[in-house]
Amino acid sequence: MNPPKRLRSEAETPTGGREEEREEEEEREEERGAVDVSIVMPMYNASCWLDECLQAISLQDFTGTMELSIFDDASTDDSRKVVEGWRERLEARSISLVISGHDSAQPRGVGYAKNKAVSQSCGQHLCFQDADDVMLPQRVRLQYEASLLQPNSLVGCKVRRVPEGSTERYTRWINTITQDQLTIQLYTSHGPTVIMPTWFCSRDWFLKVEPFDEGGKGVPEDLLFFYQSIRQGGGVARVDECLLVYRYHEKATTHSVTESVSMETIWKLRVDFLQERVLGQWENFTIWNAGKQGRKLYRSLSPTNQEKVKAFCDVDENKIQKGFYTYEESKQRPKPKIPVLHYKDASAPFIVCVKLDMTGGVLEENLDSLQLKEGTDYYHFN
Question: What pTM was computed for the model?
Answer without folding.
Answer: 0.89
